[in-house]
Every structure is written in structure tokens, then in C-alpha cells.
């Protein structure tokens, strides 16, 4: 009885452990196994070097899925086709994670979208040479679908050559269009160009250029030496000390409360002046000064003789005051009482 209980407990432990392991795997990524996916494939008649499995697939920059398989049509669809009749395309399959409804809708829309110009194209992801698959609308007349005779395993989306592929194809077409005479003419042109360059290089005054370059370098060395001597002879320490003193004085000046008060007063005065200007007080003041000036001019013009007489009398009065001042200085008492004092006669002096 005890043995059977142990077996039951052991079985329960194994079942619980396996359930926990399955739940953990499901949470870590196993849920992707049960998500609906939509797979489409496209074909390229050129190299897709740099495009790896797991490379991102984007529709106008928006993440759409990732590359799931990169195969050859010869190994996938053309095993029974003679070698001389094989297409030798590169088959690229893409897996898109969508809901079941979206997957059905995509299968229905891909054919219509392909007719409107939806194409898959390889693009460089950076300077590292890695590529990703870009899906976008292009000119369907310029990029027609590739021809093939098999039935695709997944939904087929036409492709378009990459920009690098187009450049290589154009270069190959250009080289193929050249005949033997064109190649000879091109070679002769290149030889002539090289000969002309060689002649011009021989005609260059290399010795003169070298001598001038040597002189320029010598002058530069002499100038640098002069600069070094000037810097060594300059009273740099004294200049730095003076600058430090000036900086300290500026700090003291800027820290003076009176300067701050003066700046505040200037600000207040500027504000009041701006307010007076905005209110029109300054304009009224200027107009008042103009009116007073005009009145003063009229007054002086009408009483010009009286003003001249007043000025003469003021001059006479000034002269009298000056004479009185001198008299007071010499005879203070006489100026207050009357005439100058009598001279004192000493005994025995003649009258």
C-alpha cells in the first residue's frame, strides 16, 4: 500500500513538473507557436548577399515581419527541370505575424495590391552591408513580375531589383553594348590621357617648387622663433598680475551697493522717462519751451531800447558797487560814519 502511494506521488510530481515546464516555455516564447501567421514568398533574379534569415521586413518603414527562408528555385521548384531551362531564382519567404482574420484578408488583397505595384525590394540597413526587405508601391510597368512555370507554395508577391542591382545591371548592359572598336577607342583615349598627364608632370618645375617650399618653411621657422622670443621677453607675469588687480577692482566696484543703487535709479529714471514719453508729457514740455522761446523773442524785440538802457544802468551800478567795496576795504569806519579819519599829529611835529 505504501509503495503504491509513493508511485502515485511520484507520478503527480512528474505531471506537475512537466506542466510547469510547459507553462514556462509557453510564457517565454512558446505562445508564438499558436499565433496565426501569414507567409508570402518573392523571387529575385540577382544576388541577395547581405540578406539573412531573420532580417526585418518593413512596409514603408513600418515593421511587418521577418525573413523566414532563403532558398533557390532550382532546389525548391525546379528539381525535375533540365539545367538549361531552369530560372535559377532566389526564393525569399517572409513570415508575418497577424491575426487569423488579417491573414485571410492579406491572402485576398495581395493579388490586387501586386497589380497596383506592390513590390518587395532589398535595401541596405547601413554601411555594414546588411540588408532588409522593403515592401512598397512602385511602378508596375517598370517592374513587371518575373516569369516562372511552377505553382508557389505560399502567396506570391513580385519583387523589384535593388538600387545597387540596377546600377550593376546598367553597367553590365553598357559593357555588353560595347563592341571591339569602341573598346579600342576607349583604350586609346585612356592611353592618350595618361601620356598627357605624364608630359605635364615632367614639365612641372619641381626644383623651383621645392626651393620655394623650402624658403616658405624657412620663413615660417624664423617667424615662429621671433614669436617665441617675443613671448619669452614679454612681461607676462606682470601683465597677469595687472589683470588680476583689475579684475579684483572690478569685482569690488560691481559689489559696491552704491553702484547697484545708481543702476536702480537709472532704471527708475528710464522707466519714468519712457512713461512720460508714452503719455506725451515730453512732447508737451517741448512745445511749452518753444512757445516760451517765441514769447521771449517777441518781448526782446518790442523792448529792445529799454533792455539796452537797463543793461547800461546795471553796468553803472556795478561800477559804483565796486568803488564802494574798495572804499570799505580802505576806510571801513569812514564808509559807515563819513569821510576819512583825521591824521594824528605827534607832539613836536610841524603842522
Describe this structure in words.
With 351 residues, the protein is of the alpha/beta class. Among the domains are: 33-161, no CATH class; 162-204; 280-322. It is built from 11 helices and 7 strands. Strands 5-6-2-3-4-1-7 form a 7-stranded mixed beta sheet. A hairpin with a 2-residue loop joins β2 and β3 (62-72). The longest helix is centred in the middle third of the chain and has 28 residues, at 206-233. It is elongated.
Observed structural traits:
351 residues, 11 helices, seven-stranded mixed sheet
Helix fraction bin: 55-70%
Q: For the record, give the distance between the C-alpha atoms at the N and C termini, rounded to a whole number.
A: 179 Å
| Global Rg | 55 Å
Shape descriptor: elongated
Oligomer: single chain
Strand arrangement within the widest β-sheet reads 5-6-2-3-4-1-7
Question: With helices defined by DSSP (H or I, 4 residues minimum), what is the helix count?
Answer: 11
